[in-house]
Specification:
ATP-binding; about 650 residues; alpha/beta; AMP-binding_CS; metal ion binding; ATP binding; about 25% strand; single chain; binds ligand 6R9; acetate-CoA ligase activity; seven-stranded mixed sheet
Amino acid sequence: MDRIEGVLKEERVFYPSEEFRSKAHIKSEEEYQRLYEESLKDPEGFWGRVASELHWFEPWQKVLEGDLPHAKWFVGGKTNLSYNALDRHVKTWRRNKAALVWEGEPGEERVLTYHDLWREVQKFANVLKRLGVKKGDRVTIYLPMIPEAAIAMLACTRIGAIHSVVFGGFSSGALAERIRDAEAKVLITADGGYRRGQVVPLKQNADEALKEVSTVEHVVVVRRTGEEVPWTPGRDHWWHELMEAVSDRAEAEPMEAEEPLFILYTSGSTGKPKGVLHTLGGYMTYVYLTTKLVFDLKDEDVYWCTADVGWITGHSYVVYGPLLNGATTVMYEGAPNWPEPDRFWQIVDKYGVNILYTAPTAIRAFMKWGEGWPLKHRLDSLRLLGTVGEPINPEAWLWYYQVIGKGRCPIVDTWWQTETGGIMITTLPGVHPMKPGHAGKPFFGVRPEILDSEHRPVENPDEGGHLCITRPWPSMLRTVWGDPDRFLQQYFSQHPGSYFTGDGARRDKEGYYLILGRVDDVLNVAGHRLGTMEIESALVSHPAVAEAAVVGRPDPLKGEAIVAFVTLKEGYAPSEALRDELKAHVAKVIGPIARPDEVRFTEALPKTRSGKIMRRLLRQIAAGEKEIKGDTSTLEDHRVVERLKEGA
Ligand code: 6R9
């Protein structure tokens, strides 16, 4: 298998302290083992018990029905996510507890108690109803990291509307594509958002996008920056004006457990992003339990996940998981290095953050900026650290452990995906010794398997293969929005009967999983998933480009860097100016996160005789390897490779 290799040499093992272990929700390996076995032997008993900790308007008849790829959870049960995240707590002492602590990039602060958030969500639910939004309608949310993003999400789930959050860093074209695919009726955006002191013109992007789509009837605009924005009377409405005119009571709609909850677009191996669909009951139950146990979350904790709500991590572990647990969740709008590279550490001290969950790419950036910045702060409130989004290299792990956690805080390296809805593989913080670079053990109810190209389980420890999941789990995606064939094709055709994750992995003799990264045409750039095909389509939409092939090159900071090989049309010649223009073009078409790090002009791309681009060769060339390894017998023209290497 092409890319399944790893050169991890770190052998050290770190143990959670006795102090941490004695107070943890799950305290011993035996307890983990017993519950894990039960969760596989009797998933109905296990998940039924977890779900009963939440509120159901009507009980389910069956916990689990069917098998992969089409399992159903909590069949016949009726519940509501917004009710479980808010009303349930408002009826208790948590009513006046801080639910959401927000800090804007310029420094403003807002604290919403559970009661405050509950009122705001009900008001916005009424706003949506007034705008004609009904159960099952799609609402696109294109907002910065401000409390209104969480309010809008919770209001949608309260009335049974399906939200589709689009990351504020996406361009108008990417936004239009996602609105069109979901056929959204309402778009919620802001005049702008702050990023590194600059204003991101969200409303302007939204207007651009709306020129291309016809389904949106109303646009709700949050006033965030106060900039002048273009306005279409009748269609556009200010959030604060709509909120003045509605009541603060809106009952949560009892919803079927298997009704759609939200759509979230993610990159796959084709040019078109997939609308991953999650449904209510299973997602809610799984996210509730993983947040509680993986982060060992307690009522007195201040919890901060630094992800943007535009990604699945923001959905599950900024908004829904913490609120389902009645926790205090911190939300920060801006960049980690604004105005200085110690903004995160300032926030940790200011709010007394106990649990911090961030991405390896951020940790590597902090390392580069130097430990002087974190050392200026106490950081003594921290008791648990987490990472997500990409493999963490042991150096970064050790830095995080020592410089941020002072050797005192366990680290959970959580492997999961947009499609899995919640954390699937991780250590449990009070239980498992930590091995830097290894995600760890399967969470309850998760049955991973490493399969070889013949679909056989790889039995030898430390041998690589495809990471698959062989049993249904509550928060798995149910389909790809509007494309059930793609759902089956993408996830269930490679290894029949199993869910194929797209990742390579190996398992050591203690049963710890080590994730080796994607084995498909998906890049992981600074923790963001990008399809090579998406970037290629963006490139060929430029008049100068004849053909493009995009690959990843290992990058010390971003995990992977984007390298584009481009052939030009007749009449165009390679130049520095054209190179910059192509980079800017991709950033405009998809968003700044997709800007290629390198554009290489070439006269031809290496292809097989059947015309497929041989990316494996391009990856090696991009990485600067002198010797091209592996089979090149199918290569149509060997001279192409030599010329590409010379051009390096
Ligand atoms: C949650 C999220 C999913 C892909 C996944 C894998 C990579 C995520 C990881 C990890 C190694 C970890 N990934 N967590 N790789 N160790 N702890 O990131 O979802 O944006 O859908 O990305 O990210 O390659 O397949 P998503």
